[in-house]
Amino acid sequence: MSERFIITKDPIVIEDVVKKVERREAGAVTTFIGTVREWTNGKKTLYLEYEAYVPMAVSMLAQIGKEINEKWPGTAAAITHRIGRLDISDAAVVIAVSSPHRKAAYEANEYAIERIKQIVPIWKKEHWEDGETWIGDQLETTEYPEGKPDIEEAASGRERGADH
């Protein structure tokens, strides 16, 4: 199952993620592609940097896949999240979900991105025209005014709060 849940420094090949969930019994495949946008809250973004506590991040992505299959029986999910430097329009995350019927695929795909933001230890640093800052977790509820997050410490805090 873990080959469907990946953290990578390489550009994401969308078709490769989709192929991981294609099945004869699936009548629907939905994809979500999260890309780096140029403007956020009136600030021009030059590029982003993502970091992750990779072993736990992969484990949490697999957990999301399991949750999806429990909530929408007959579904299959694959998630790839990129780390490192990403330029404008680069894909940061690709989620593919297949299911016998489209409604479950849509719902499960939306569920996946929300859960990624809640439980997966991935952090981003925004680089703007006039500066840079670590935004914090993907819900943007944690800030790092002193600079970079302590990845190991932050991940252990996520682990304690992983079950919502």
Automatic annotation (TrEMBL):
Keywords for the protein's UniProt record, in alphabetical order: Molybdenum cofactor biosynthesis, Transferase
Gene Ontology BP terms: Mo-molybdopterin cofactor biosynthetic process
Pathway annotation: Cofactor biosynthesis; molybdopterin biosynthesis
Region (Disordered) location: 140-164
Keyword Transferase: yes
Class of enzymatic activity (EC top level): transferase
UniProt EC number: 2.8.1.12
Origin superkingdom: Bacteria
SUPFAM superfamilies attached to this UniProt entry: Molybdopterin synthase subunit MoaE
Pfam families referenced in this protein's UniProt entry, alphabetically: MoaE
UniProt-listed CDD domains: MoaE (cd00756)
Catalysed reactions, as listed in the record: 2 [molybdopterin-synthase sulfur-carrier protein]-C-terminal-Gly-aminoethanethioate + cyclic pyranopterin phosphate + H2O = molybdopterin + 2 [molybdopterin-synthase sulfur-carrier protein]-C-terminal Gly-Gly + 2 H(+)
Assembly and interaction partners: Heterotetramer of 2 MoaD subunits and 2 MoaE subunits. Also stable as homodimer. The enzyme changes between these two forms during catalysis.
Name of protein: Molybdopterin synthase catalytic subunit
Natural source organism: Bacillus licheniformis (strain ATCC 14580 / DSM 13 / JCM 2505 / CCUG 7422 / NBRC 12200 / NCIMB 9375 / NCTC 10341 / NRRL NRS-1264 / Gibson 46)
GN (gene name): moaE
